[in-house]
Amino acid sequence: MPPKDSDSDDSEPDNKIVLPKRWHDMTPRERAMMGVQAQFDRYHKIARATGYTGHDMRLMSELKLLDASLGPPHSSTTSKISSPSSPPSSPSPSPPEIPALPQPSILATATFALTISPHYGNINNVLHGGAVALIMDMVTTAAIGPLAKKGYWEFLAGVTRTMSTNYLKSIPVGTLVHVHGHVMGLGKNMSFIKGFITSPDGKIVYVTCDVNKVGLPAKTEHMGYRVEWDEIWEDKAEGEGKAKL
């Protein structure tokens, strides 16, 4: 059983974002961002409580959420992000300028920044193909966040069934990249998500990826670790209930 909130470690990871805490005070973009952020919040809460130190732990701590959308991504040309040597900037209420593919068929998106550390490299000092699979797996799952509902593709509920990856250009260790997940199809049990690794300005596409996932129910014990998003959804449900009276 998960510990009570008062007994849990309240320290936050560096990639934590802060957004309004009531559904009706949030913009559609903020709701999408929070839907993605909730995946990370619950992950870190479980990891702290259980002492989890698995293969994906470093990546989930180093990915920095830049943007998310319900529908096609925000269209722009460049991205404003702190360099690795400068302190992270506070999230802006307006969408950051991120390269986008504004296709109407896109159901939801998430975009992250990641600096390729030696941990993800190979002996040639470039990003390892196995690390690409890990990055694409986690980012394409997190991209479902804006569409997730109670009992429907909740916390990291998609298990990758097939992944087709195109390695277009090597990525030297130390490179700052943007990682995109675009949800193209989401049903009750199956999903199709496209992933991309690009330069921050979008001029270089390093990797493309097609991922098919099978939806599985989230573990009951995992959902017992509550995060802010749970309270926001309850606030939404309460507001809708009052509106029907």
For the residues shown, what is the average pLDDT?
82
Record the strand order, biggest sheet. 1-2-4-5-6-3
- Measure the end-to-end span: 36 Å
Q: What would you call the structural class?
A: alpha+beta
Tell me roughly what share of residues is in helical segments. 25-40%
**Biggest pleated sheet:** 6 strands, antiparallel
Q: Radius of gyration over alpha carbons?
A: 18 Å
Domain Thioesterase: 124-204
Family: Belongs to the thioesterase PaaI family.
InterPro entries: ACOT13, HotDog_dom_sf, Thioestr_dom
Biased composition (Pro residues): 85-101
Structure, briefly:
With 245 residues, the chain is an alpha+beta fold.
Main traits of this protein?
245 residues, alpha+beta, 6-stranded antiparallel sheet, 5 helices, 6 strands, disordered N terminus
What topology emerges from the helices and strands here?
Elements: H1 28-50, H2 57-62, E1 64-70, E2 108-115, H3 129-142, E3 158-167, E4 176-186, E5 190-198, E6 205-215, H4 220-223, H5 228-244
Antiparallel strand pairs: 1-2, 2-4, 3-6, 4-5, 5-6
If you had to describe this structure to a student in words, what would you say it looks like?
The protein is of the alpha+beta class. Helix content is 26%, strand content 23%. It has helices at residues 28-50, 57-62, 129-142, 220-223, 228-244, and strands at residues 64-70, 108-115, 158-167, 176-186, 190-198, 205-215. Strands 1-2-4-5-6-3 form a 6-stranded antiparallel beta sheet. The longest helix is centred in the N-terminal third of the chain and has 23 residues, at 28-50. The protein is globular, with a radius of gyration of 18 Å. Belongs to the thioesterase PaaI family. GO terms for molecular function: fatty acyl-CoA hydrolase activity. InterPro entries: ACOT13, HotDog_dom_sf, Thioestr_dom. Residues 124-204 form the Thioesterase domain. Residues 85-101 have a biased composition (Pro residues).
